[in-house]
Amino acid sequence: MKRRGIFITSILFIFLLLIENMGFSADLKDYKPKSPDEEAIVSLLNKWKETWEGRNLQGFLDLWHDDAKIMLGGGPYPTRIATKEEAKPALPNQMTAFCCGLRFETPTIDESGKEANVEIWIVITEGGHSQYNWLYWLNLVKENNRWSIMSWKYRGQ
Length: 157
Known about the structure:
- The protein has helices at about 1-20, 35-55, 55-60, 85, 90-95, and strands at about 65-75, 75-80, 100-105, 110, 115-125, 130-145, 145-155.
- The chain is of the alpha+beta class.
- The protein is globular.
């Protein structure tokens, strides 16, 4: 009986590894917001994806608060924190470098009044295959009934 339990546990472990490595994960489009604020935050994330993939610099910058602190660089490039105005010339290069396609996975949203923290994996894809995984931590603020990004940090894997 003990051998059977070890066998079943081993099979489950292998199955979970296969699912993880094949890229099966919950997608942002399947996320069910728990409140109107979460719905607005998910909409902001979808606009981020749309503007980034469309290389719509102004549309992307419009998602950011005027006093935002934007992390730039990463991977082989040194990171730095920039204002919106300082980031504007650098963002088109990043949009081109990471252009192929983005898959936003299910976020963790911690929303409290006029502030929210979002943790989300973003998978950069090419030809339908995962190329890079980036974990983003976003700080959002709500002003005038509108959510905007105040800052983000990320780490690639």
